[in-house]
Amino acid sequence: MKEIKSKIDRLNSKILKIEDDNYKELFNEVSSVLDGLSAKVHEIMVNEAVLAENLKYLDDDISDIQEELFEEVSLEELDEIEEEFKEVTCKGCGKTIYIEASALKENKGIPCPYCDENII
Ligand SMILES: [Zn+2]
């Protein structure tokens, strides 16, 4: 950007040396257009940098939200796992055992890990 600016400055100092008024006027017009364009480009570059910075913050925010969401999902999953287990008291030794609900339904004879007697 600085390079373009200094090129325009050099051009302007050359235009000052033009003796023909018509050419001088024409080149002054061209130079002012270039000046305007370079100012516009500079403005766009600054805006782009600001936007990039904002995007970075947005990206960080989204990452935080994603982390929170995944945490919640895994908590829900934990709840589901807990629901799948049933608390059963062994009629042989009176100890509490957690058994999968599906195993309780299908299997009539589950041995107690403490006393080896069938729990149900
Ligand atoms: Zn038992």
TrEMBL record:
InterPro entries: CD1247_N (IPR054688). It comes from the Bacteria. NCBIfam families: CD1247_Nterm. This is Zinc ribbon domain protein. It comes from Clostridium vincentii. The lineage of its organism: Bacteria, Bacillati, Bacillota, Clostridia, Eubacteriales.
